[in-house]
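hey can u check if this looks right to u? its 78 residues, i copy pasted from the old doc so theres a chance i mangled smth
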Amino acid sequence: MPDAMSQAQLLVVDRAACAGHGLCYGTAPDLIDCNDQGDPIVPDRPLGADEVELAREAILVCPERALTLATAPAAAAS
């Protein structure tokens, strides 16, 4: 069974926690975009290895802790 580090990861936004500071898409503009209200738009797919590192950087700068990484379901990972 593969460990969590080798499984596909998704970037998830807790919309209720997000205050729209914009630090996440300022930190990782190649990964995270924003809508007209300033809410982050994250990829709706498993992240590539280089994207996981960008996601981790964005997670660290979020003052609301509204971003997390989650393990992608097996069907999405293939």
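The beta strands are 9-13, 33-34, 40-41, 67-71.
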